[in-house]
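Subject: for your reference before the review

Hello V.,

The reviewers asked for a structural picture of the protein, and I figured it would be easier to keep everything in one thread rather than splitting it across files. Below is the amino acid sequence we used in the manuscript, unchanged from the supplementary table.
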Amino acid sequence: MGSPQDVLQALRRLEERLVEKVDSRFDGFRLEINARFDSIEVRFERLETEYQMLSAAVKRLEGLVGRIGQGLDKIALKSEVLDLKARVEMLEKKLADLDAHS
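And here is what came back from the structure prediction:
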């Protein structure tokens, strides 16, 4: 068996190898985790961009629907005015017929 110095030196070398091995495994793990976070960040940014685009599209559609609604209101109003004009013309014609018969 070796001297106590030899045993201590062997233990130190073993400790150094173990620390190196643990450090190298943690380095690999750290790189893997960083790569995963990077890919998640890229996907998150893409989703955020798509959300902004969809939000802007919804606002444009809401504006368009509002303008269409106003246009439909105007169309309905025009239709009612035309109907009233036709009724007035019909009443004027009936009055003219009544005046002609009297």
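For the response letter, the relevant points are probably these. The chain has a mean pLDDT of 88. Residues 4-101 form the longest helix (98 residues).

Happy to draft the paragraph if you're swamped.

O.
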